[in-house]
Amino acid sequence: MKDYIRKRVLDICQHILESKHTVRQSAIVFGVSKSTVHKDMIERLPLVNKKMANRVRVILEQNKAERHIRGGEATRKKYKEAGENSKK
């Protein structure tokens, strides 16, 4: 694994552990694709550091389990704002 990839993997891992961000949020912060973040955390991180990989996996699984809730909240907010704008 090239050094810049190893550094990115560790940087993204540290960011997720500190912030509990989703793959999508982390991708935006680091300017890479969601696929890159996912591959880094699921495939590359275990090769670099197994303990950190297990900790990140727990966070990612929690985010995955909660995503339907976040999606529902986003939809509710969207229609609430649309309703407020139509009243003006």
Largest sheet: none
Number of strands: 0
Task: Please state the average pLDDT score.
Answer: 92
Radius of gyration: 17 Å
Low-confidence stretches: none
The sequence of SSEs as H and E is HHHH
Taken from the alpha-carbon principal axes, the silhouette is elongated
Please give the alpha-carbon distance between the first and last residues. Answer: 57 Å
Structural write-up:
This protein has helices at residues 3-19, 23-30, 34-48, 50-87. The protein is mostly helical and 88 residues long. It has one domain. α3 (34-48) packs antiparallel against α4. It is elongated, with a radius of gyration of 17 Å. The relative contact order is 0.13.
Overview features:
elongated; 4 helices; single chain; mainly alpha; 88 residues
Layout of secondary structure:
Elements: H1 3-19, H2 23-30, H3 34-48, H4 50-87
Helix pairs in contact: 1-3, 2-3, 3-4
What is the structure about, briefly put?
The protein is 89% helix and 0% strand. By secondary structure, it is mostly helical.
